[in-house]
Amino acid sequence: MKCQITTLAQCRTDAHLMLWKAHTDAWPEALRPLLAEMTHGDEPQSTRFGLNGLCQQLTLLPSSQIERPEILRQLTESLNTLLPSPVLHPVALDISAFNLADRTVFTRLRTLLVALMNRFYQLPQLGFRQGQQESNGQLWLLSTEHNTLADELAAQTQAIAQGMFLSRKLSDTPANGCRPQDVAQQAQAWASAHPQTHCDILDENTLRELGLGCLDATGKGSKNPPRLVTLRWQGAAENAPYYAFVGKGITFDTGGLWLKEGEGMRTMKYDMCGAAVVFGLMEIVKTLQLPLNVVAVMALAENMPGENAMLPGDVVKSHAGHSVEIINTDAEGRLVLADALSYTATRFKPAALIDVATLTGAVVKALGYDISGLMSNNPKLSQQLQQAADLTQDRIWPLPLDESFDPQVKSHIADLTNTPPNNAAIAVSAAHFLSKFCHQLPWAHLDVSGTALSRGKFTQASGRPALLLTQYLLDLSKGNSNEKDSTGM
After folding, report:
1. Are 69 and 102 in contact (CB under 8 A)?
2. Bigger pLDDT: 484 vs 240
3. Residues designated as active site
4. CA-CA-CA-CA dihedral for 223, 123, 187, 473, to nearest 10
5. What is the 3-state secondary structure (H, E, C) of 315-330?
6. What is the predicted pLDDT for the residue at 85?
């Protein structure tokens, strides 16, 4: 899988060539009559005929106003039809007429390119199907000349797609091959293969010793014990601040003794998408060699109704020192995140703390499948994430979070409860619960229950919100996030 710059003259003849209706200067002379015929439609036009051996397939894309969100969405959605799976041939896309110096154009074009690259990933690549043809995952960006911005565009596109492939493969892997210890071993192998990266793994005994009672309670019902995995990237000085990302990693969620119905369990191998995304983000950070210190923490557990499983009504002690009454054992995501957030906050004291989690179905009812929920205790961090989301169109929407939600997390027997007594404002109540474990650090919660999966003919991981988080870090690296400096909150 690669993304490279080339010229139209060097375009491979086995490629799917994509050109733009308005960028006529890039049309090959031999195909001009055919392309002129294709301009009459308002939708993308594609053909495999009359190509004179210049390419395998030719597509003419309508509007090139990539900076307009509605145009970008239309183009992205059209890829599902234009590039049906599996994509067996290289794709060549003309970028010669885009003004890459325009930050919005650059970023929105990169969003389209990342979506295109993600068409190269297919579930059969996991290796469970016999006789599956391999996708020739190559994207060629056609430019009139090599330039720094085009090279940067290609490099960022490949890095982001590479990280998303890692997280999507991890999320899509069946639960019997993706236990907490399996993810921990994969993280250890990844860190060992790359300089400037480090991996620390806490097993079930260490979790108990360090007082991570919520994570321990969630995982103790399974014969596959929980793990807390920390990946670090040292891209700046040792005394420079860390930017921390925490991922919910429930490798399978039965609901515990609050057992889900069968249909509700069908996609529960995906309850670790948050952990997979922050793992993939580290791959992006490493590939782009970002000049920041970044840490990703994965809270990994299998929520099972075994003989040692947590019981409704149990009270456990969290890493932050709060006692937590566990009313609903199917509200386990906030339990593992609570300990992971507290552990990350106290160990690294990061300049920003962001968690990613498939936390509540309520956020899907509120925002649907295309927008992630954002809740934060820090207006500046919230604004930075919203700016990155707007630029990339990896969309988020802020929901309220203040002390008025305190009654939703108070327990009569303990300091806190993991479910609200009135079953209201579930998404916000879950976030408010998490806010109690951040030690007053700048924190943001991304509920990706709707956006973590692609839902079409079948379900698979989407890799979101990797684009948003990458842009946030790129903005910090380049000082483009309206901060006084690139390190401060």
Report:
1. no
2. 240
3. 260, 334
4. -130
5. EEECCCCCEEEECCCC
6. 75
